[in-house]
Write a structure and sequence with these properties.
The protein contains ten helices and eleven strands. Bound molecules: glutamine.
Length: 298
């Protein structure tokens, strides 16, 4: 039996030596997980004794993390937009920078609903989350809109070409009680024919340039490559979606696309080339980095 402080201290050494970028945070999260408590309890009680069972579970998690596996896969979930999302190798782990996209989407929906009268029978605001992966954007937006009492005024569709990711997305929708509000469909970006265009197209598509993938933290090598690899310049998949925006969006529709912090100019250029009569502005994320391309018809 050891106490919290001793276990954390040796774990930090071990994880640092193994190349973790955040050894203390990892150790605290994994010990809390092994004990079945919160990280705050670990921080508040360094003197507490850890049972042999919990210590053994901690050791198991540490070994996995030391081998490079992301903490979110070891715990089986990741916090995002105030919610806990089931996370495993079927999909990309939710990233904090994507919260900015959800925030902007939430504001856009509110603006749309508030901006015009909505007599009974007005069709819902239609929202597509393209490349939904584990359903992070679609589900967190559905939960946020339900909290605002406007969940019934929207229709959210999560789209992915990977059935495994969609299974995880459905689990997350069920877990957050929005399975009746978010529909998931299997398609490559969008359905071959968009029968009814969307008011909002949201997407966190892969945007890492192929040759930058080996330079990502080891943890990323546990995630599906297709969720990260954006081709030679990182914008191959985003470009395919951009060319489909004219058919995918209603005339005053809005696309919010997550991009890499160094891709602002490239994505503005891409939109200018592919959609000359549209505009593209880039919004910053919570860390002050360029992150979300906002694309509309001029
Ligand atoms: N922001 C992610 C990273 O950690 C990339 C996610 C993506 O390609 N959509 O590299």
């Amino acid at each position: 039996m050891g106490n919290v402080q001793e276990l954390i201290r040796t774990a930090i050494e071990r994880l640092r030596a193994a190349g973790s970028e955040s050894p203390r945070l990892d150790a605290e999260l994994l010990l809390a997980h092994a004990i079945g408590t919160d990280r705050t309890v670990i921080v508040a009680h360094p003197e507490a004794t850890v049972s042999d069972g919990a210590a053994a579970r901690f050791e198991e998690g540490l070994a996995r993390r030391a081998a490079g596996e992301p903490v979110a896969y070891i715990r089986g979930f990741k916090e995002f937009y105030g919610l806990a999302f089931a996370a495993d190798k079927r999909a990309l782990i939710p990233r904090p920078e994507t919260e900015r996209l959800v925030e902007l989407a939430e504001a856009a929906v509110v603006r749309r609903l508030a901006g015009a009268p909505r007599p009974h029978g007005t069709p819902p605001v239609r929202i597509a989350d393209v490349g939904t992966g584990g359903g992070t954007i679609a589900v967190s937006l559905a939960v946020a809109l339900r909290r605002r009492g406007i969940g019934d005024d929207v229709e959210i569709i999560g789209i992915d070409d990977d059935p495994e990711a969609l299974a995880l997305a459905r689990e997350n929708a069920v877990g957050h009680a929005v399975a009746d509000r978010v529909r998931f469909i299997e398609a490559d970006l969008l359905p071959p024919v968009v029968a009814t265009p969307y008011d909002l197209v949201l997407a966190n598509l892969p945007y890492v340039p192929s040759d930058a993938i080996p330079g990502l933290p080891v943890a990323a090598s546990f995630e599906p490559r297709a969720a990260l690899d954006g081709g030679p310049d990182g914008l191959a998949v985003i470009a395919r979606l951009v060319t489909r925006l004219p058919e995918a969006l209603v005339p005053d529709g809005l696309a919010l696309l997550e991009i890499g912090s160094d891709q602002s100019e490239a994505v503005v250029g891409l939109v200018r080339r592919e959609l000359p009569d549209w505009t593209c502005e880039v919004e910053l994320d919570l860390a002050g980095q360029p992150r979300v391309a906002r694309i509309v018809r001029a």
